[in-house]
Amino acid sequence: MANTLIYLVDDDELYLKTAHHNLGQNKGFTIKTFMSGEEVLKALSKKPDIIILDYFLDSEKPNAMSGIKVLQEIKQIAPDVEVLMLSGQEDIDVAVNSVKYGAVDYIVKNKSAFIRVQNDIKRIMKGKEKDKDNAGFRKFVITLVAFLILLIIFLIIYAIDHTVFGLFPDPGAPIKDPNELPGLSH
Amino acid sequence: MAKYQYIDLNYLNDLSLGSKDFMQDIITSFIKTTPDSIAKMKECVNTEDWQQVGGIAHKLKTSFSFMGMDSMVEVSKVLQDYGLNAKETNKIAALIEQMDKAYVLAEEELKKELLQLQN
């Protein structure tokens, strides 16, 4: 698997450190951490593959952007970036909102959260590679079809030129001496 | 893993994937930040900023779970609910006090663990 750039966003320093430590064990992952939504939005130009985003980013700072607001902004600026939403509580509204605004999954911060996050990352990256392969194959097929169409057009023009105009010669061309025609010579 | 009365570091040990440095770092961060968070919640009670109490409790919930302080995880959940929904506000101060006392007891054990990790 190619190197995967992952952004981790959480205002909880302890969780951020733990997530970084756990996910950082995977050799194919490059991880960058952010403590606010505002910070991660500024770093979108580096084109991360996946963003792991905490839902409750405004827990201590009410003026900070909420996880859902950040998710909406990410999807507007970089729609191809996949977002995994993390939340400290099992709440159906949180899950529904996350998926509604474009998160690929919603994960509760329980004891199996990191395993689930890793599995999700692997699944997303496999999907992305498959999409890339499919896009490459599609490009090849389109090029091949375009070439065949051009070839057919060329052959049609060639055939018209050598059959139709061969049967009806140019009226302006000089008339040949009948004696010179094959089979009439004495 | 050493056995303690107020903390259980088995989960943190699992998360550390065998790294003593990581264990030390997380325990040190916990000791450094938790008293401030509890103090902040007490201030919020005085100003009746219940939303803030709920927000801080939400964050503490994860920290307490890393230290295996299950009863404090439950207290955090209740505080989060009461705070964010501004309900049962007359019970909030007592719950924070309970949390403060539990933290003091846990801190002693965490410091012992830090010493062991350093040796």
Question: What keywords describe this structure?
Answer:
heterodimer; A: 186 residues; alpha/beta; Rossmann fold; five-stranded parallel β-sheet; B: 119 residues; mainly alpha; Four Helix Bundle (Hemerythrin (Met), subunit A); 5 helices; 82% helix
Task: Please tell me about this protein's structure.
- The complex is a heterodimer of chains A (186) and B (119).
- By secondary structure, chain A is an alpha/beta fold.
- Chain A contains five helices and five strands.
- Chain A has helices at 13-23, 37-42, 67-77, 92-100, 113-167, and strands at 4-9, 29-34, 50-54, 82-87, 105-108.
- In chain A, strands 2-1-3-4-5 form a five-stranded parallel beta sheet, sandwiched between helices.
- Chain B is mainly alpha-helical and 119 residues long.
- In chain B, 36% of the residues are buried.
- The mean pLDDT of chain B is 95.
- The A-B interface holds A 11-15, 17-18, 21-22, 25, 56, 58-60, 62, 88-89, 109, 111, 114 and B 11, 15-17, 19, 22, 25-26, 29-30, 33, 51-52, 55-56, 58-59, 61-63, 66, 80.
| Helical/strand content category of chain A | alpha/beta
CATH superfamily of chain B: HPT domain
Question: What is the spatial order of strands in the main beta sheet of chain A?
Answer: 2-1-3-4-5
* Rounded Rg of chain A: 32 Å
Multimeric organization: heterodimer
Summed up:
Chain A is α/β, with parallel strands linked by helices. Helices cover 49% and strands 15% of the residues of chain A.
